[in-house]
Amino acid sequence: MGAPANLVLVDARGLRLHKDKWAAETVARDAFWGPSATIAWLEGSFASSTDDAFWGEDHCDGGVLVHVPRRVMRVFGGSDPMIDVPLRRVYLALLRETWPGWDVGWAEDGVLDLAREAGHADLASLVWQPPIEPASKLAPLPLARLVPNAVASVRWADGRLGVYATLAHPEAVLALPASDLLARLVALEAASPPVRAVHFVSARSFRGPPRGELRADGTLVVASGGGVWPGGSLHLDVGAKTISAWWGRSGNLAVLGRIARRCSPDWTFVSWGSRFEEHTAATGGRLSWDAPPERQLLDDACELLGAGITDPERRTMLARARAAFLARRAS
Question: Reduced to 3 states, what is the DSSP secondary structure of residue 307?
């Protein structure tokens, strides 16, 4: 178990790697404090051990890459920014303030992004090929618990847009060949309460158990529960023969894309990264997400980054990053 992370530094000494069994939970905060502090932290990890091979997708929950010659930094991990896309965007804006002059970003493809930026030659060795386990059926939502595990929309050949919510998980949905999936969505529509639209309630403002409400106009309002941002969603365009998806958790979208390409090889998989707004646009607003106010996200990000930090220099750095964030928004 643990929280395994790949910690990678590329500098004049070449590529150095340390596989840490516990760093994934804190790596986003550990790498926040600018290049000098992060490189010193990485050097300290190399003092305990260095490794020759990356942990692959099936064993890696986080990591950081610092490429000194190119001034590139990539990071992923931490239970909150790892899955909460709006919070992650604010975190990255603060990160750019503490890494001035660097190309910093989130590794949305997880370890594959780290290895790619490091110039690792054998990306194929890091890829996880998940087992293909198609859903036996797309289970409709019970009226007692209107909380879906997967949400999909379909632009049918005649231009009609359908919105579907099921208890089946996304991996099992995409493991169905597209023709079978479309047929089962039609069957799901006949067996389920009519869903015209899906709206996800602001995740960080709702921390009760998951719940859903189907309103009279056919809008399914979902609060994921526990402050968890929704994981992602799918969109099929029958005329274009495309399967599009966005996903929050790093690495998941690459795995889902692999499943879709293997099971529907005559369709094109389109990655929206973590841009949930793409799905809103593709459905004309019938799938929507209620992100918290940016000021609340800023407060939450600063609280996460500052938790347990007593060093005056770091507290000052965080305060300056916050002030710079607010000044940019005000300009």
Answer: coil
Q: Is the pTM of this model over 0.90?
A: yes
Q: What is the pLDDT of residues 93-126, one digit of tens each?
A: 999 999 999 999 999 999 999 999 999 988 999 9
Token readout for 221 is 């309002």
Instruction: Determine contact, residues 143/273, Cβ cutoff 8 Å.
Output: no
CA distance 155 to 157: 7
Residue 234 CB coordination number (10 Å): 22
pLDDT of 71 higher than 80: yes
Percent of the chain with pLDDT over 70: 95
The model's pLDDT over 201-226, given as tens digits with 9 standing for 90+, comes to 865 655 667 788 899 999 999 886 65
Which of 104, 128, 100, 129 is CA-nearest to residue 117?
Answer: 104
In the sheet that holds 219-223, the strands lie side by side as: 211-214, 219-223, 197-200, 287-289
For CA atoms 246, 108, 314, 71, the dihedral sign is negative
d(CA 299, CA 49): 37
Which strands, in side-by-side order, build the sheet including 103-106? Answer: 14-20, 5-11, 62-67, 72-76, 103-106
**From CA 14, how far away is CA 91, in angstroms rounded?**
29
| CA dist list (Å): 135 to 164, 172, 235, 258 | 15, 5, 17, 17
How many other CB atoms sit within 10 Å of the CB of residue 246?
Answer: 24
**Which residue is listed with tokens 């293909």?**
132
d(CA 263, CA 244): 14
Whether the CB-CB separation of 31 and 75 falls below 8 Å is answered with yes
